[in-house]
TrEMBL record:
Keywords: NAD, Oxidoreductase
EC class of the enzyme, as a word: oxidoreductase
Ranges for domain Aldehyde dehydrogenase: 19-475
EC numbers: 1.2.1.67
Cell membrane keyword on record: no
Name of this protein: Vanillin dehydrogenase
Taxonomic source organism: Tritonibacter horizontis
Family: Belongs to the aldehyde dehydrogenase family.
GO MF annotation terms: vanillin dehydrogenase activity
Gene: vdh_3
InterPro entries reported for this sequence: Ald_DH/histidinol_DH (IPR016161), Ald_DH_C (IPR016163), Ald_DH_CS_CYS (IPR016160), Ald_DH_N (IPR016162), Aldehyde_DH_dom (IPR015590)
Length: 482
C-alpha cells in the first residue's frame, strides 16, 4: 500500500464518523509502510461512545427478531461483497496470509447469518409455583451495554465475534480495537454495519494510540451503563482487566490464550497427523490462540513423523502475505520476533535439537520444529504462550503418561488426539481438561456455530448460540391471580 491510499480514520460513535484531534500511525508489519492514521481516542470520546450505546439500548433491545434478522443478513452480504478489500487490509495491517483472511471473511458472514435467527430463540419459561394462585415466568433479557476489547490476531473475525454475539441477543456494543489493528479489528466492521443500516449507537468503535488502552478503557469500567466486559486477548491483560471488573462488579467474558497439545498415538494415520500438525502449528505464523504448541508422538512412529513433518514444514513459502503461494507472512512486531527467537535460543542452549527453521528475515520467521527439549525449557512446560511459529515434538513410550503431561499446563483451550481407535480417542477426549478437544482433527477447528472457549487460564465464556448464557440474564416475574 502506498502513502496515497492512506486515510485518516475517525471513531464511529452514534452512527457517525467522529473525528479526533490526535492520530497515530498504523504500519505494515512486513515493511513498516504506513497503512492508516487512526484516531488517538480520549476518555471523553470513549465516554461519548458509551453514552451512545446506552441511549440506543432500549430501541435495539425491543427491535423485532425479524427486523434484526434483516440487518444481520444485509451485513453478511456486504461482508462477502467486500472480500477482496478485507483480504488486502488484513495482509497490510496484520501480516495475515490470503487463506486465513479469506477464511475469516467466510466465517464472519456465516456467523452473521446464524446470529440473524437467534432473536427467535425461546426467551423464557413458565414455571409451576408452590404458592396457590401464582404463576411464575422466567424471562431472558439482554444485559445493556457490552464493552468489547478486540485483539489484532484473527482481527477481522474476532472483532465480529465480539460485536455480533452480544448484539444478536439485544445488547448494544462499544468496542476498543487493538492499537495494532484498529481498522481490521473494529473500524471496517463499523463501515459494514453502517452501510447495512444498523441503528445509530447500536455499535460504537473508539480507537486509541499505543500505551493508552488503560486510560481510554476507564470509561468502560466506570460507567454504570456498561454491564459486561467482553475480552479476547492474552491472559496477561485479562488479569489486569479482571481485577478492574471485580472492583466495578461487572460481568466478564474472557477468551484467552492456549497451549493446545496434540497426542499422536502409535495407531494414528501418520500422514493425516502430519498435515494436521503442520496446519495447526504454523497457520498464521503460529499467532492463533488455538495453534498447536507441542506434539507428543509415540516412540515407534516418532522419527518417521518428524521426518515427514520437517519436509512439509520446510516447503512452506514465506514472505509477503499477498504474494502468490506465500503461507508464512511476517510476525506482528519486533517484540513477537524477539520472543520467538529467545524461546528457540533458550531451548537450543539447553540441549534441544533444531530440526528445521530457526532463521528470520526481517519479521518473517521460518516455521521452527524442536525435538529433545528438556523439561526445564519454559516453552515446553506450556507456562507461557509463545505466540509465533515454534513447535516442540516429544516422543513417548507411555500414552497415559504423555496424556497427563499434556494436561500439565495452566492453559485449557484446545487439544487433539490422533488415533486409529475412535473409542480410545473419545475416552481420552472425555478426560481432557480443555474447552475444546478434537479426535483426529487439528487443534484449530473454528466454525461459527460451534462453541469456542477455554477453561483454566484460557478463560471462560462460549461462542455460537451458547453465548446466550453470557450475554443475557434471567428475570423472574410472577403473577398472582386468585
Ligand atoms: P493483548 O492482551 O495484548 O490485547 C488484547 C486487547 O486488550 C487489545 O485491544 C489491547 O489494546 C487491550 N489491552 C492491552 N493492555 C490493556 C490494558 N492495560 N488496559 C486495557 N486494555 C488493554 O492481546 P493481543 O496481543 O492483541 O492478542 C493475542 C492474545 O489473544 C494471545 O494471547 C491469544 O492467544 C489471545 N487470543 C485468544 C482468543 C480466544 O478466542 N481464546 C482468540 C484470539 C486471541
Amino acid at each position: 500500500m502506498t502513502n496515497q491510499t492512506v486515510t485518516e480514520r475517525s471513531h464511529y460513535i452514534n452512527g457517525t464518523w467522529a473525528p479526533s484531534a490526535r492520530h497515530f500511525d498504523v504500519s505494515n508489519p512486513l515493511d513498516d509502510s504506513l497503512v492508516a492514521r487512526a484516531a488517538a481516542g480520549t476518555r471523553a470520546e470513549a465516554d461519548a461512545a458509551v453514552a451512545a450505546a446506552d441511549q440506543a439500548f432500549p430501541g435495539w433491545a425491543s427491535l423485532t427478531p425479524g427486523a434484526r434478522q434483516a440487518l444481520f443478513l444485509r451485513a453478511a452480504d456486504i461482508t462477502e461483497r467486500r472480500h477482496d478489500d478485507i483480504v488486502h487490509l488484513l495482509a497490510v495491517e496484520t501480516g495475515t496470509g490470503r487463506a486465513f483472511a479469506s477464511y475469516q471473511v467466510r466465517l464472519s458472514a456465516n456467523l452473521m447469518r446464524q446470529a440473524a435467527s437467534w432473536g427467535y430463540l425461546p426467551c423464557g419459561d413458565i414455571l409451576r409455583s408452590d404458592t396457590p394462585g401464582r404463576t411464575a415466568m422466567v424471562q431472558r433479557k439482554p444485559l445493556g451495554v457490552v464493552a468489547g476489547f478486540t485483539p489484532w490476531n484473527g482481527a477481522f473475525f474476532l472483532a465480529w465475534r465480539t460485536i455480533v454475539l452480544p448484539m444478536a441477543f439485544g445488547n448494544t456494543v462499544v468496542i476498543k480495537p487493538s492499537e495494532l489493528a484498529p481498522v481490521s479489528a473494529g473500524l471496517i466492521q463499523a463501515e459494514i454495519l453502517h452501510e447495512a443500516g444498523f441503528p445509530a449507537g447500536s455499535l460504537n468503535v473508539v480507537t486509541h494510540a499505543p500505551g493508552e488502552a488503560a486510560a481510554l478503557s476507564d470509561a468502560f469500567f466506570e460507567s454504570p451503563a456498561v454491564r459486561s466486559i467482553n475480552f479476547t486477548g492474552s491472559d496477561r491483560t485479562a488479569r489486569i482487566l479482571a481485577a478492574r471488573a471485580g472492583q466495578a462488579l461487572k460481568r466478564m467474558v474472557l477468551e484467552l490464550g492456549g497451549y493446545n497439545p496434540m497426542l499422536v498415538l502409535d495407531d494414528a494415520d501418520v500422514d493425516h497427523a502430519v498435515r494436521a500438525v503442520n496446519f495447526g502449528a504454523f497457520f498464521h505464523q503460529g499467532q492463533i490462540c488455538m495453534n498447536t504448541r507441542k506434539v507428543y508422538v509415540a516412540q515407534s512412529i516418532h522419527d518417521d513423523f518428524v521426518a515427514r513433518l520437517a519436509e512439509r514444514t520446510g516447503g512452506l513459502l514465506a514472505g509477503d502475505p499477498l504474494a502468490e503461494g506465500v503461507v508464512v507472512g511476517p510476525l506482528i512486531n519486533d517484540a513477537a520476533v524477539a520472543l520467538t527467537k529467545s524461546r528457540i535460543r533458550d531451548a537450543v542452549d539447553q540441549g534441544a535439537t533444531l530440526v528445521t527453521g530457526g532463521t528470520c528475515e526481517g519479521r518473517v520467521h521460518a516455521p521452527t520444529i524442536l525435538t529433545h527439549v528438556p523439561d526445564t525449557v519454559r516453552a515446553t512446560q506450556g507456562c507461557e504462550e509463545t505466540f509465533g511459529p515454534l513447535l516442540i515434538v516429544e516422543a513417548f513410550d507411555d500414552a497415559e503418561a504423555a496424556f497427563q503431561k499434556a494436561q500439565d499446563t495452566p492453559y485449557g483451550l484446545s487439544a487433539a488426539i490422533m488415533t486409529g481407535d475412535a473409542a480410545k480417542g473419545l475416552e481420552m477426549a472425555s478426560r481432557m481438561d480443555t474447552g475444546m478437544v478434537h479426535v483426529n482433527g487439528a487443534t484449530m477447528a473454528g466454525e461459527a456455530s460451534l462453541p469456542n472457549g477455554g477453561v483454566k487460564d484460557s478463560g471462560w465464556g462460549r461462542s455460537g448460540h451458547y453465548a446466550v448464557e453470557d450475554f443475557t440474564e434471567l428475570r423472574l416475574a410472577t403473577l398472582t391471580h386468585g
